[in-house]
Amino acid sequence: MPRVTVIIPTFNRADLLPRAIESVLAQSYQDYELIVVDDGSSDNTPELAVITGNHADFACIRMPNNTGVSAARNRGVRNSSGQLLSFLDSDDLWHREKLARQVTWMDQNPEYQICQTQETWVRNGVRVNPPHSHRKVQGWIYEESLKRCMITPSSVMLKRELFERKEGFDESFPACEDYDLWLRITSDHPVGLVDEYLLTRYGGHEDQLSSSIKILDRYRIQALEKVLRTTHLSVKHRRATETILAKKAHIVANGCRKRGKIREYEYYNTLFERYR
Predict the structure, then answer these.
(1) Do residues 39 and 66 make contact, with C-beta atoms less than 8 angstroms apart?
(2) Buried b vs exposed e over 161-174: b needs ≥16 C-beta within 10 Å?
(3) What is the pLDDT of residues 214-269, one digit of tens each?
(4) Measured in Å, how far apart are the chain's first and last C-alpha atoms?
(5) What's the predicted TM-score (pTM) here?
(6) What residues are paired with 80 via a beta bridge?
(7) pLDDT (tens digit per residue) in 49-86
């Protein structure tokens, strides 16, 4: 039974997937299983996955329909056996010591159930510096995570027990599914940090989820409503959540009003008035 499960969800990424898989196969730490979940691709992604993933503990799962990244990741977890879970988006790549450093860190810090690494950003082929507000930090980061997604799926490693207890990714979210899960986790768990640059994230391509779905704040608002409804929060965390929800609802409401979407404006303005 492998110690680590690595899951790569992918959809029509035949041009990018081999790079991601090869970065896993090149890891110095080898006690892992690799599961590629093809989310109903119409190109030759499945064939390339099998050709590239020449590894003793490799599997490619083909989902018949494009059901979304949450369903793909959850399906990979259900078909895996590792004690520790790591996810890699098919347009990103890991550096050689990524798994080794995180497994060692988790062993040395047993009080933590989740950790991540620092990351390098590349946009349209050019390396860029992330804003200071996006720099990863360690500890209790719930309030920081309300403002923006402070955990990158491709950098994270977490214990299977934590993922299953939090019921994984919510498959009803077409976007911001990671924001939703990290809020549920950081509300009662600190997040560890391996303070090394062990991931390269690539952006700028047209099929990137964050650029293909408009008004992501709608789904962040949905996640904030959900955490208020389903998660036991301290008074401090609840107030902070309501403040951010009101701010985002106000922004979306104004946008709807400008575009003449009166019904949507009324919905988000009601949220703003409720939580302001």
Answers:
(1) yes
(2) eebeebebbbbebe
(3) 689 999 999 999 999 999 999 999 999 999 999 999 999 999 999 999 999 999 99
(4) 51
(5) 0.92
(6) none
(7) 887 766 668 899 999 889 999 999 999 999 999 999 99
- What is the spatial distance between Cα 30 and Cα 219, in angstroms, rounded to a whole number? 37
Quickly count: other Cβ atoms within 10 Å of residue 5's Cβ.
22
- Contacts (Cβ under 8 Å, ≥6 apart) of 87: 6, 7, 8, 9, 73, 153, 154, 156
CA distances from 159 to 131, 147, 232 (A): 29, 25, 21
Residue 198, φ and ψ in degrees, nearest 5? -120, 10
Q: How many contiguous H segments (helices) and E segments (strands) does the chain have?
A: 11, 9
Distance, CA of 94 to CA of 85 (rounded, Å): 15
Distance CA 66, CA 205 (A): 19
H-type helices in the chain, by residue range?
A: 17-25, 45-52, 69-78, 98-108, 142-147, 160-165, 177-186, 209-212, 217-230, 235-258, 262-275
